[in-house]
Amino acid sequence: MHTAITIDALKVLDAIDRKGSFAGAAGELFRVPSAISYTVQKLEEDLNVAIYDRTGHRARLTPAGHYLLEEGRTLLEAAENLAHTTRQVAQGWETRLRIGFNSLLPAECLFPAIRDFYQLGVPVDVQIVEEVFAGTWDALQSRRVDLIIGADNFSKPAGNFTTRALGEMPFVFAVADNHPLASAEEPLSEEDISRYPAAVAADTSRSLPPGHAGIFRRQRTLTVANIDQKIAIQVAGLGVGWLPEARIGRQLEEGSLVVKRVHEARQPIMLHLARHAEDQGKALMWFWDRLSRDDVVKPAPKEAL
C-alpha cells in the first residue's frame, strides 16, 4: 500500500515549524534548503492539498497544513515508541505484563513492587487483574495473565507451572457486631449458622471447576463479586461467613465485625506465586523475584486480634 505521507515528510514539517523556517529545518536535518522545499512540494502534489500559504512575505501553514502537522506529530511519536519497544523486545523485555491477584489479598500488596519497577525506567505496561478462588489458576492457564499471586493448591490444574510459596492465609468466622450470631453461645453449630445467609464471593473461573468453602447445604447465599464486597456485606449484617483474618484487622479493631468460634474450624491455606515454567521475560522474572521477597501475605495486626 502506497501513501504520500511518509515519516520523513512529517519530520520535515515538524522541523520547519519548530525552527521557524525552511532554512532552519535544513540545518537541523543536515540537508540543503532545496531538499526541504522539494519534500514539501512533493507532499502537496501527492496529496493535492496546499500545506503552506505562500501569498505573503513568509510561507504560513494552511488549516490543512496545521491539521497535518498536529496529527503527524502523533504519528512521529508512535513511530518512535514502536522503534523503542522493538529494541525493548529484542533485549528480552515484554511490552506488557498482566498480573492476576487472588481477591483474598488486597491489590495494595502489589503497589511497592510496581513503584520500584517504575524506577527501572522500562516502558512496560502493567495490568492488574483481580480473580476469585479458582479464577486465579484459570486466568493463568488460559493466559489471560502472565503471573498470579495468591494461588492455592486446591484448584491447581495440570500443566507445566512453576510455583513459589508466599505464606499461609488464616480464616476466621465473622459476623456483624449487631448480628444475632454475635451474642450466640459458642462454638456455633451448623444448625446455628445455616439459619442465616452466607456471604459468598463468586468464583471467577471460566473453565476450571469453581471453588467454594464454608457453606452449608441448607444455607441461603448472598453472592458478590470479590472479597472486599463480601467483607462489606458481613459488616452490614446481611450475611455471615469465613474471612481472611489479615483483611479485616480494621473491622475487628473497631468492633464492626466479631469473630465467633465454630464446631468445625476452617484450616489456613497456603498461597503461592505461579507462572508458566517456560515463560522467562525480564519483566515477569523481575516481579517474580521481587514478589517472592515481599511480605504480601501479612498477618493481621496484633492489636486487632
TrEMBL record:
Residues 5-62 form the HTH lysR-type domain. Transmembrane segments: none annotated. Pfam families: HTH_1 (PF00126), LysR_substrate (PF03466). InterPro entries: LysR_HTH_N, LysR_subst-bd, WH-like_DNA-bd_sf, WH_DNA-bd_sf. Coiled coil: none annotated. Keywords: DNA-binding, Transcription, Transcription regulation. The keyword Transcription applies. The keyword DNA-binding applies. PANTHER family: HTH-TYPE TRANSCRIPTIONAL REGULATOR (PTHR30126), LYSR FAMILY TRANSCRIPTIONAL REGULATOR (PTHR30126:SF4). Belongs to the LysR transcriptional regulatory family. This is Transcriptional regulator, LysR family. It comes from Marinobacter subterrani.
